[in-house]
């Protein structure tokens, strides 16, 4: 399933994923995603006071309905020293026959009290494709116009493209590769690892960043893995196999802020924090690829 079924959740068919399956032994023995209490001596865990990034108020309401503004915002890096707070959730598709995955943004300084989810990106699997083909659209814009695609020609490897045309096809700009993910899983009772490369373009120049998942620690007493999330109990409240942290490959210092943190907060609902060098689109792509496993 796209979101791994947690104990007590009903099984739901998800068109974004082929196959499925249960976790061996359920979640009683393997609580993925970390302890829910703060570990005082763990240097990873910290309460951040950094500025929050993104539009708010009337600006946000206008931007999410305007392709010329929303597209560049979704492709733009979150500035250094700031964090964009988002929500990833699943929604029933048309007629309830499919399931969509949606990226929402939360207004800066209001994420604790504002329960409204401002939908900015929508992921839908193309059903008649011979290979995995996920379209990322603008959900609130007329016609749900395309922003990017995720394609997978090899098992566990995914490539993100913009909305351009294939090489050799007439009309429009030639499509660009925006990122690549390789996901590795060693079975239902082992953590998923992810390595990715993201490309950001400025005119004709591009900058490439390499990132990978933070290795979880294993607590022998509790017989479970845990990860050092920030704001435990606020941004991360539930255990899930798809809770994870991402770091830049060159970052060796534990206290470095992580470019991506995603943690479950409710059934089918995850809190996503995005930092430099990622853009919201890259973060959404990485989350979608991780949840394919």
UniProtKB/TrEMBL annotation:
It comes from the Eukaryota. Pfam families: Tub. Residues 1-10 have a biased composition (Acidic residues). Residues 205-291 form the Tubby C-terminal domain. InterPro entries: Tubby-like_C, Tubby_C. Residues 1-20 are annotated as: Disordered. Belongs to the TUB family. This is Tubby C-terminal domain-containing protein. It comes from Chloropicon primus.
